[in-house]
Amino acid sequence: MARLSDQLIGRIKQEVSLVQLVEAKGFNLKPHGSDYVMCCPFHEDDTASLVITPSKNLYHCFGCEAAGSVVDWVMKTEGVSFRHAVELLRNEFLPLAAESTDQPKVIKQNSTPKLSTPFTAPAHPAPAALAHPCASAANADHQETLK
Ligand SMILES: [Zn+2]
């Protein structure tokens, strides 16, 4: 599993618009000054208690005190873990956020060579091929090339 860096999480919280996210999920936002209000999806609400503040990219409900960032929003509305929420946002929304800037996309190549995954014995009895002398010989050859 890919590691979630603080940088990525920070980017998502800053660059993924909570307003866009909420509208994309079909919620109805009403402008209220520099903020937006909507009926809170986290409690029975018919008075639009939930306020989204685009300048902070945060939401806060005055009815049930639900509050947080885009990541918290996805965790609560989708019922997923923090990691899952970050991955959903990265996959669905971060490409859009990146395109809205003027910076050219730079795909950074990972210069660290990938380590082959360590061999793990299968749970079922080992096939005959693994016990064959050729198998260990091939393995020795393989190790030679790595030196
Ligand atoms: Zn609420």
UniProtKB/TrEMBL annotation:
<keyword id="KW-0808">Transferase</keyword>
<keyword id="KW-0862">Zinc</keyword>
<dbReference type="InterPro" id="IPR050219">
    <property type="entry name" value="DnaG_primase"/>
</dbReference>
<dbReference type="GO" id="GO:0005737">
    <property type="term" value="C:cytoplasm"/>
</dbReference>
<dbReference type="InterPro" id="IPR002694">
    <property type="entry name" value="Znf_CHC2"/>
</dbReference>
<dbReference type="GO" id="GO:0006269">
    <property type="term" value="P:DNA replication, synthesis of primer"/>
</dbReference>
<dbReference type="InterPro" id="IPR036977">
    <property type="entry name" value="DNA_primase_Znf_CHC2"/>
</dbReference>
<keyword id="KW-0548">Nucleotidyltransferase</keyword>
<dbReference type="GO" id="GO:0003677">
    <property type="term" value="F:DNA binding"/>
</dbReference>
<feature type="domain" description="Zinc finger CHC2-type">
    <location>
        <begin position="36"/>
        <end position="90"/>
    </location>
</feature>
<dbReference type="Pfam" id="PF01807">
    <property type="entry name" value="Zn_ribbon_DnaG"/>
</dbReference>
<protein>
    <submittedName>
        <fullName>DNA primase</fullName>
        <ecNumber>2.7.7.-</ecNumber>
    </submittedName>
</protein>
<dbReference type="GO" id="GO:0008270">
    <property type="term" value="F:zinc ion binding"/>
</dbReference>
<dbReference type="GO" id="GO:0003899">
    <property type="term" value="F:DNA-directed RNA polymerase activity"/>
</dbReference>
<feature type="region of interest" description="Disordered">
    <location>
        <begin position="101"/>
        <end position="124"/>
    </location>
</feature>
<keyword id="KW-0863">Zinc-finger</keyword>
<keyword id="KW-0479">Metal-binding</keyword>
<feature type="compositionally biased region" description="Polar residues">
    <location>
        <begin position="101"/>
        <end position="119"/>
    </location>
</feature>
